From TrEMBL, chain B:
Keywords annotated in UniProt: Membrane, Transmembrane, Transmembrane helix
Alphabetical list of InterPro entries matching this protein: FecR (IPR006860), FecR_C (IPR032508), Ferrdict_sens_TM (IPR012373)
GO molecular function: sigma factor antagonist activity
All copies of domain FecR protein, residue ranges: 142-229
Top-level taxon in the UniProt lineage: Bacteria
Organism of origin: Spirosoma telluris
Transmembrane domains' residue ranges: 94-112
Coiled coil: none
Domain called Protein FecR C-terminal: residue spans: 284-351
Protein's name according to its UniProt entry: FecR family protein
Length: 202, 357
């Protein structure tokens, strides 16, 4: 888990040391972000070799061009945006906006399969988590991506817009829409006779 | 304002997210107050909390393994080295490169003669700036003493390497370790001393301790000889379990960090040694003394916690001294004498006995 907010300053410090050619600072940045970047990459593209290659390329490029790099206001932002571009560039261009990180099938499948049996055996809290999890994976790729950037990575709407290559209003809309989708999914589950939906989420 | 918050509003609230994902005790107190003041918000808060934690779990589910992280870094370093972007124009840079290589070859020859390679620019990556950094690689079979810029000392084990700034920074003393080393750190409370080793960081103000972090090992170990040592995961993930986040170690304690699940456990070092001065130790000589008295002396001598039933053991009497043995040898002898057993749980020793008649 990244440290919200307070860490940006430390990042900048290491970023500047890295630009001057210190490998340890480079390694520090790598160690700090490789895990969340990888996880984020896997949300954009489920093929781990694509994600690994993109991360490798990105960091290799960073090292090679270090002397030309500018001071970064937010290192985290810079890395997330670069990685997303790398991954999308490695795909065919027409895939860029259609590539879901979960196959279409996921959209319907997981909600129903597990939940019913869970109700009988699991405690309420476990059930909530299980449902949420399946709702989250049900979300269209870009909506999930936006949620993740906003609520897990704590990016501002402006930053999300720049990372996802959309307008700031677009970013707000996506977040609103994804929360709405989550609510709707909760309702669907509800109508199917699984009475937890409304009670649990919103 | 919180009384009218919706789930969305809570999610948008940075302070709320911070509490859920990396909550500190003071945050807990703050939000407990909110709950007390606005009990009708309990469900809403619980929903928002659940949402964040689930998101968090989903993100972590896709974390790469530590082996992947290491491997990927090696590939990056190799790549960066293999195909550097060279400017096309420059004769002078060719000359610089040539003379640097010559220097490397010469210095390589010179240092390998001594069986110790003290290099910077010629490391496998070529990425380290020799003007600022010192890199020490111990290719010999013996322990290599490295004197650090602040007067601290590192005893570097074979197949290990250490790099650090030639002049430590103003605010911290920071060294990077691959492999194993024993550190004796000069006291300087104003300037913490950090050992970065793989995924963990060990932080001290002035003390002595050992860090073992070989790439191929599944566990990273930190063993404390004197002083207090803080160990934590460099990529801290606070929301899960405070034990995962880090430990404060006292002498004779050891932290084991498992790379695969990024988890710390506290235990004792293999051979705990006395932490009190020799003169004080000599006073611990017992003649037909009740066992609890001896055990309390052991606690003090090794800085460990023993758990035993004082009343039950007060009838057991022994003649012994505390010199010349490490803790576990001592415990073996004592327990055998009174027909008891002991086991190590975390960093505590629990003694089981039926007492003496």
């Amino acid at each position: 888990m990244k440290d919200i907010g307070a860490s940006d300053q430390e990042d900048r410090l290491y970023w500047n040391r890295f630009r001057k050619g210190e490998e340890v600072a480079f390694s520090w940045i790598y160690q700090r972000y490789v895990r969340v970047l990888y996880s984020y990459g896997m949300k954009i593209n489920r093929d781990s070799s694509v994600v690994e290659d993109a991360i490798q390329d990105m960091f290799t490029d960073l090292w090679r061009t270090r002397s030309q790099l500018a001071e970064a206001k937010s290192v985290r932002f810079y890395l997330f945006r670069s990685l997303r571009r790398k991954i999308h560039r490695s795909l065919r261009p027409e895939d860029e906006y259609t590539q879901p990180f979960n196959p279409e099938a996921d959209y319907k499948q997981p909600v129903l399969a597990s939940v019913e049996s869970d109700i009988i055996s699991e405690e309420e809290i476990t059930l909530q988590t299980a449902q949420l999890k399946s709702w989250l994976t049900c979300l269209p790729a870009r909506q999930y991506e936006a949620l993740l950037l906003r609520y897990y990575q704590d990016f501002s709407y402006a930053e999300i817009a720049a990372i996802m290559n959309i307008s700031e209003q677009g970013a707000r809309n996506i977040i609103q829409k994804s929360l709405h989708t989550l609510r709707r999914l909760a309702l669907v589950v509800c109508f199917l006779g699984i009475g937890w939906g409304l009670k649990i989420f919103f | 304002m919180y009384q009218n918050y919706t789930t969305d509003d809570f999610l948008q609230d940075t302070a709320f997210r911070k509490w859920v994902l990396q909550g500190t005790p003071s945050d807990d107190a703050f939000w407990a107050d909110i709950l007390r003041n606005f009990p009708h918000q309990r469900d809403t808060i619980q929903q928002a909390r659940e949402f964040l934690l689930t998101l968090h779990e989903q993100v972590e589910a896709d974390f790469p393994s530590e082996q992947q992280v290491d491997l990927l870094y090696k590939r990056i370093v190799e790549n960066a080295h293999e195909a550097p972007v060279r400017p096309l124009y420059s004769w002078s840079s060719w000359w610089v490169a040539a003379s640097v290589s010559l220097l490397i070859v010469l210095s390589g020859w010179w240092f390998t003669q001594k069986n110790i390679v003290r290099i910077a620019k010629s490391d496998s990556t070529g990425m380290l700036d020799s003007r600022l950094f010192e890199q020490v690689v111990n290719t010999s079979a013996a322990v290599l003493i490295v004197n650090l810029p602040d007067g601290s000392q590192a005893s570097l084990e074979p197949r290990s390497q250490l790099h650090y700034r030639k002049a430590f920074a103003d605010t911290i003393r920071e060294v990077f370790l691959v492999g194993e080393a024993f550190f004796e750190v000069q006291k300087n409370p104003a300037k913490p001393f950090l050992v970065r080793a793989n995924a963990i960081t060990t932080r001290v103000l002035g003390t002595s301790f050992r860090v073992s972090a070989y790439d191929q090992d599944q566990q990273i170990k930190v063993m404390v000889k004197t002083g207090r040592v803080a160990v934590f995961s460099t990529q801290s993930r606070k929301y899960t379990d405070p034990e995962q986040d880090g430990l404060i170690l006292t002498p004779n304690q050891q932290a084991d960090f498992t790379k695969t699940d990024a988890h710390f456990t506290r235990t004792l070092v293999d051979k705990p040694i006395p932490i009190i001065p020799q003169t004080e130790l000599q006073q611990f000589s017992f003649r037909n003394a009740p066992l609890p008295e001896i055990l309390q002396a052991i606690e003090k001598t090794y800085g460990v916690e023993l758990i035993f039933d004082e009343q039950q053991l007060s009838n057991c009497r022994l003649t012994t001294s505390l010199e010349n043995e490490n803790l576990f040898e001592k415990m073996d002898v004592l327990c055998e004498a009174i027909g008891a057993t002991y086991k190590l749980v975390d960093a505590q020793i629990i003694i089981k006995s039926k007492g003496c008649d």
